UniProtKB/TrEMBL annotation:
<dbReference type="GO" id="GO:0005524">
    <property type="term" value="F:ATP binding"/>
</dbReference>
<dbReference type="GO" id="GO:0005615">
    <property type="term" value="C:extracellular space"/>
</dbReference>
<dbReference type="InterPro" id="IPR023660">
    <property type="entry name" value="Arg_Kinase"/>
</dbReference>
<feature type="binding site">
    <location>
        <begin position="177"/>
        <end position="181"/>
    </location>
    <ligand>
        <name>ATP</name>
    </ligand>
</feature>
<dbReference type="InterPro" id="IPR022415">
    <property type="entry name" value="ATP-guanido_PTrfase_AS"/>
</dbReference>
<feature type="short sequence motif" description="RDXXRA motif of the pArg binding pocket involved in allosteric regulation">
    <location>
        <begin position="338"/>
        <end position="343"/>
    </location>
</feature>
<comment type="similarity">
    <text>Belongs to the ATP:guanido phosphotransferase family.</text>
</comment>
<dbReference type="GO" id="GO:1990424">
    <property type="term" value="F:protein arginine kinase activity"/>
</dbReference>
<protein>
    <recommendedName>
        <fullName>Protein-arginine kinase</fullName>
        <ecNumber>2.7.14.1</ecNumber>
    </recommendedName>
</protein>
<feature type="domain" description="Phosphagen kinase C-terminal">
    <location>
        <begin position="24"/>
        <end position="255"/>
    </location>
</feature>
<dbReference type="InterPro" id="IPR000749">
    <property type="entry name" value="ATP-guanido_PTrfase"/>
</dbReference>
<feature type="binding site">
    <location>
        <begin position="208"/>
        <end position="213"/>
    </location>
    <ligand>
        <name>ATP</name>
    </ligand>
</feature>
<keyword id="KW-0021">Allosteric enzyme</keyword>
<feature type="binding site">
    <location>
        <position position="92"/>
    </location>
    <ligand>
        <name>ATP</name>
    </ligand>
</feature>
<dbReference type="GO" id="GO:0004111">
    <property type="term" value="F:creatine kinase activity"/>
</dbReference>
<dbReference type="GO" id="GO:0046314">
    <property type="term" value="P:phosphocreatine biosynthetic process"/>
</dbReference>
<keyword id="KW-0808">Transferase</keyword>
Length: 354
């Protein structure tokens, strides 16, 4: 598997599959922070030790397969151009923090891009496993199995009292971040989401944008994840998150029904106006594109727009990002050039569906 494989397709293979409640929940992710017991954490480790960790991961796991996750590719970060790094961030295969590293950092990616293991980010290993739709319990079971497979050859830094030891104290304990990516256009439209976010935060959960910490919720896409990792089991953390996500799903569906009953003409007008913008614009900025894509995705889910794939939101949200646009163009683009190319690619994609 070559790096070009991960660069050419905006949507990862696993994202083409339907999952439970996928009209609202785009994806489920479990991330585990793990460290080698015999080495200092990356922030303090010697460069030669970090290099040794990279060499070990490459030697032991490159081109290996585990269950449904085949042919792992080892990609050193220092070998990537700035645009290639940005594309991997936009596809959620690496974090923005890892993209900034230059030495002794890498990522191990399965062929279907469902698993990515970041090497020497904030921790020696950041293990990510994705599933389409709302599948927290299944994702937890599978990430445990993946973790056990890795631990067969790695001695993790673990304390009987504190649990897994991590570079940041906020990850000590389970070392786990469970998150669910949700499309909540109706809660945003009715402004209910503004009242819900503070309540969710009080439950030990956090609401972020599509690219996690520090990012904004463009396109009405919100990432809900746990904040607490110490003092609760992985199962308890997942149960708490699952309960809140179920509530959000129910509220979003009620809000959609309310809007359909009370403002159906306004709703249809907004959706078709957004569809028109996407179908005919010659220049479009990323925020406007995200807003219009959100409206069109809602129209598809409500049956207002027919014969257009639900995957259009997932695909175009990545395809129209700055990194992917420049990867597509094979050159660095100005902001105006990106806006023109973004509009062109969206028009082509819409025409293919129509």
């Amino acid at each position: 598997m070559t790096l070009q494989h991960f660069m050419n397709e905006a949507i990862s293979p696993w994202m083409r599959e339907e999952g439970p409640d996928s009209d609202i929940v785009l994806s489920t992710r479990i991330r585990l922070a793990r460290n080698f017991a015999q080495y200092s954490f990356p922030i303090l480790a010697l460069d030669k030790d970090l290099q040794h960790i990279c060499q070990f991961i490459r030697q032991e796991y490159e081109h290996q397969s585990f269950q449904d996750y085949h042919d792992f590719s080892f990609v050193p970060i220092q070998d990537l151009s700035p645009i290639e790094r940005r594309v991997l961030v936009e596809k959620h295969l690496i974090s923005p923090h890892l993209a900034e590293q230059n030495h002794a950092s890498a990522v191990l990616i399965s062929k279907n891009e469902q698993v990515s293991i970041m090497v020497n980010e904030e921790d020696h290993l950041r293990i990510q496993l994705y599933f389409p739709g709302f599948q927290l319990n299944h994702a937890l079971k599978k990430v445990f199995e993946l973790d056990d497979w890795l631990e067969g050859k790695i001695d993790y830094a673990f304390d009987e009292k504190r649990g897994y030891l991590t570079g940041c104290p906020t990850n000590v304990g389970t070392g786990m971040r469970a998150s669910v990516m949700m499309h909540l256009p109706s809660l945003s439209w009715t402004q209910q989401i503004n009242r819900m976010i503070p309540a969710i935060n009080q439950l030990g959960l956090v609401v972020r944008g599509i690219y996690g910490e520090g990012s904004e919720a463009t396109g009405n896409i919100f990432q809900i994840s746990n904040q607490i990792t110490l003092g609760k089991s992985e199962e308890d953390i997942v149960e708490d998150l699952q309960s809140v996500v179920r509530e959000l799903i129910e509220h979003e569906r009620k809000a959609r029904n309310y809007i359909m009953e009370q403002s159906s003409t306004r709703l249809e007008d907004r959706i078709f106006r957004s569809y028109g913008v996407l179908a005919y614009s010659r220049i479009i900025e990323s925020k406007e594109a995200a807003r219009c894509l959100s409206d069109v995705r809602l129209g598809i889910d409500l049956g207002i727009i027919e014969n257009v794939s639900r995957n259009i939101l997932n695909e175009l949200m990545v395809l129209t990002q700055p990194g992917f646009l420049q990867q597509y163009a094979k050159k660095t683009l100005s902001a105006n050039e990106r806006d023109v190319l973004r509009a062109s690619l969206i028009r082509e994609r819409i025409q293919l569906e129509g």
